[in-house]
Write a structure and sequence with these properties.
The protein has 108 residues and is mainly α. The chain contains five helices and no strands.
């Protein structure tokens, strides 16, 4: 059951990455230069309030590593292209949660 849920979440992330990439391509056609939207900018566009609340919430409620987790780690990831931030974990989940063929032989 966990593999099925992981695969579904993975495919949702891959589809979202493709949609964001299509948005980037369409906006690049308008401007004439390739400009990929960052994960932070996408998050801000989709739900500004949750982005503003996330930093203090993580800093206060994640024991020991909360303040450290936001500034060097999460803030760096938010500057990366959203297609990469969504697509890489999605592809990893799809790959790791795939159906594996049963092995035939002495040790089934």
């Amino acid at each position: 059951m966990a593999r099925i849920v992981g695969r579904i979440i993975g495919w949702i992330l891959v589809i979202a990455a493709v949609a964001v990439f299509a948005r980037d391509i369409l906006s690049s056609i308008d401007t004439g230069a390739l400009a990929l939207i960052s994960a932070g900018e996408l998050w801000f566009t989709l739900h500004q309030t949750s982005l503003q609340i996330a930093e203090p919430a993580i800093a206060r409620h994640v024991p020991v590593i909360g303040p450290w987790l936001w500034h060097p780690v999460i803030s760096t990831i938010l500057t990366w292209p959203a297609t990469v931030v969504l697509g890489v974990p999605g592809m990893l989940l799809v790959r790791l949660c795939r159906k594996r063929p049963r092995k035939e032989g002495m040790f089934k």
